[in-house]
């Protein structure tokens, strides 16, 4: 469990945005150079082949961009990787383990967590409840521990620790002022933030972010990107779907271009910028 | 803020105040009705005991259903099946061993009552598991179909001649088929008081009660004490389910109700949580069934018709799914007004107007209205058949509720799913937006002081 491993978070006096780091981070155990390897992934829905033999790898400690036109199969790829959909064929390897066909919760517990393109807040739960849900393997998730008199004190203790982390993250994401609000009452951008904050609270090794900045204001977007870079330097790995080309080009070390369910090309932002195929398929020739 | 908030807000003590108020008015109404009916003290006490009995039973059932539906979003419409299995297994285990020539057609295993109760609850939970395993992996509506089918299968199984009697551990046991089972074990109160060595004390108390009810006070005292016992069970259910809901476990259940995929994507084994929640609720339904029928002396399969399931649903909807307090309230209101109420109303009308003779058929009731615009015969006929019309009345109440108060009396009170209050810990000061400027998310709702917002308070939109 991560909270035990957390370095004590700096206290009240030091307020800026750095203190939230301690709230998510517990170090990454990855030793693989490529924690995520996708091989020949294929998925069709009726007549549409959404993902058509995509293969790529994501290097540890990078912020890798996954781009492509609408309907290229990016979200479907995320669904296949995280177990929300079962691939027709192909394999997904995470930290050296074949995770193809595992249940989403099994994959999440191995340290790979995703956010959804259309934010899926738990509307009838408050922002705080949404956030408190996320941390993995909470003691009180065992029914008897939550009910039985003496052991419930252990649960309470852990809840208190979690609550501090949660409030730090809320502060960081600037959603502390809506902490008691029902998530269903949030604005579109706030939902996106909640979703990302919630995913980070599971303390993953790798995060798959599906258009996390859509609808988030530019200042906060910058702050979040800074934070992502900080986490990346600690060894966390990010795979980011995003349509904003400038954002991708300025922030990613590596970019994968998906087109009609296949990997069209991949490389550094500069490679991508100068690639004729990409320009034709995606950038519309005006870069 | 909705109108509903105001109702509870205007009553001192909030939810607790509302519960006390509603219970007090229910009892008062029944006492007044008793006076109207000319009950003596004995009659009044019996009427109070019966009211308490049904309040207890429906509060328990509605609490158990709230765990399924209100917390986890599991659409169980086979409640009565779990009750039936609980009662029948309890009877099988605790009925005395068969003796030829005795009153009972079949015997049981002759084990103590508490063993039977635990066995009945376990059986209900296991039946829940068997039903849940295939159905929970499918979408919500499949569980509904499976559970209601199950409850009818259970009823027909107990009706069937094949299970009427069979041999178990060398003794003749069985479920009695259509003619039912005589519950010829030690009466529950006697078993309870004997087991704690207080039976003599209890009998002494009954003796003393003769001062109030001179003739044969035991049935009156039994009824009152059993009712009180049931309220004790309601308290235990409430405590158990409150702790279940206000915990990380309950948080996951709530998340499953909201969006199962999200809970799963955050690493929660949702199937496991659903099964646990379902089994716990089923065991509690089994126990409620046992407590309902244990003092009745006999049980027949046709008691367990699906209508009982819908009674429980109505109770939960009245109180408000999602709230334990609401469930208790809904159970009480249902028992007092919809379940017991019509009978009292009919008796009252009969007492106040003793010489009314109502038409004997619908034709005679309706024809004066059509021919002479005289509605009285129809009214009389309606009052006369109010018990048969009970289901119609319940349907109307449901429709009214759905239109005007879909969240029930207290449904808006969503109890926070955590062990502790989720306010900012005192050790942390409120952030003022950080050092890098006042970054507020788009569409920011309020100013900084909103951290003081009341929990559960919806924003004014
Ligand atoms: N559940 C589904 N059923 C049927 N078709 C689907 C389903 N999910 C995706 N598709 C189809 O698969 C294709 C790829 O969709 P996907 O959502 O992966 O695209 P995307 O790259 O994420 O696009 P965008 O940038 O617009 O989010 C689309 O043609 C879509 O219609
Ligand atoms: Mg997409």
From TrEMBL, chain A:
<dbReference type="Pfam" id="PF00005">
    <property type="entry name" value="ABC_tran"/>
</dbReference>
<feature type="domain" description="ABC transporter">
    <location>
        <begin position="36"/>
        <end position="285"/>
    </location>
</feature>
<dbReference type="Pfam" id="PF12399">
    <property type="entry name" value="BCA_ABC_TP_C"/>
</dbReference>
<dbReference type="GO" id="GO:0005524">
    <property type="term" value="F:ATP binding"/>
</dbReference>
<keyword id="KW-0029">Amino-acid transport</keyword>
<dbReference type="InterPro" id="IPR003593">
    <property type="entry name" value="AAA+_ATPase"/>
</dbReference>
<dbReference type="InterPro" id="IPR027417">
    <property type="entry name" value="P-loop_NTPase"/>
</dbReference>
<dbReference type="InterPro" id="IPR032823">
    <property type="entry name" value="BCA_ABC_TP_C"/>
</dbReference>
<protein>
    <recommendedName>
        <fullName>Probable branched-chain amino acid transport ATP-binding protein LivG</fullName>
    </recommendedName>
</protein>
<comment type="similarity">
    <text>Belongs to the ABC transporter superfamily.</text>
</comment>
<dbReference type="InterPro" id="IPR051120">
    <property type="entry name" value="ABC_AA/LPS_Transport"/>
</dbReference>
<keyword id="KW-0547">Nucleotide-binding</keyword>
<comment type="function">
    <text>Probable component of a branched-chain amino-acid transport system.</text>
</comment>
<dbReference type="GO" id="GO:0016887">
    <property type="term" value="F:ATP hydrolysis activity"/>
</dbReference>
<keyword id="KW-0813">Transport</keyword>
<dbReference type="GO" id="GO:0006865">
    <property type="term" value="P:amino acid transport"/>
</dbReference>
<dbReference type="GO" id="GO:0005886">
    <property type="term" value="C:plasma membrane"/>
</dbReference>
<dbReference type="InterPro" id="IPR003439">
    <property type="entry name" value="ABC_transporter-like_ATP-bd"/>
</dbReference>
<keyword id="KW-0067">ATP-binding</keyword>
<feature type="region of interest" description="Disordered">
    <location>
        <begin position="1"/>
        <end position="20"/>
    </location>
</feature>
<dbReference type="InterPro" id="IPR017871">
    <property type="entry name" value="ABC_transporter-like_CS"/>
</dbReference>
Automatic annotation (TrEMBL), chain B:
<keyword id="KW-0812">Transmembrane</keyword>
<feature type="transmembrane region" description="Helical">
    <location>
        <begin position="310"/>
        <end position="339"/>
    </location>
</feature>
<keyword id="KW-1003">Cell membrane</keyword>
<protein>
    <submittedName>
        <fullName>Branched-chain amino acid ABC transporter permease</fullName>
    </submittedName>
</protein>
<feature type="transmembrane region" description="Helical">
    <location>
        <begin position="278"/>
        <end position="298"/>
    </location>
</feature>
<dbReference type="InterPro" id="IPR001851">
    <property type="entry name" value="ABC_transp_permease"/>
</dbReference>
<feature type="transmembrane region" description="Helical">
    <location>
        <begin position="220"/>
        <end position="240"/>
    </location>
</feature>
<dbReference type="GO" id="GO:0015658">
    <property type="term" value="F:branched-chain amino acid transmembrane transporter activity"/>
</dbReference>
<feature type="region of interest" description="Disordered">
    <location>
        <begin position="423"/>
        <end position="461"/>
    </location>
</feature>
<dbReference type="GO" id="GO:0005886">
    <property type="term" value="C:plasma membrane"/>
</dbReference>
<feature type="transmembrane region" description="Helical">
    <location>
        <begin position="16"/>
        <end position="39"/>
    </location>
</feature>
<feature type="transmembrane region" description="Helical">
    <location>
        <begin position="191"/>
        <end position="213"/>
    </location>
</feature>
<feature type="transmembrane region" description="Helical">
    <location>
        <begin position="45"/>
        <end position="67"/>
    </location>
</feature>
<keyword id="KW-1133">Transmembrane helix</keyword>
<dbReference type="InterPro" id="IPR043428">
    <property type="entry name" value="LivM-like"/>
</dbReference>
<feature type="transmembrane region" description="Helical">
    <location>
        <begin position="113"/>
        <end position="133"/>
    </location>
</feature>
<keyword id="KW-0472">Membrane</keyword>
<dbReference type="Pfam" id="PF02653">
    <property type="entry name" value="BPD_transp_2"/>
</dbReference>
<feature type="transmembrane region" description="Helical">
    <location>
        <begin position="74"/>
        <end position="93"/>
    </location>
</feature>
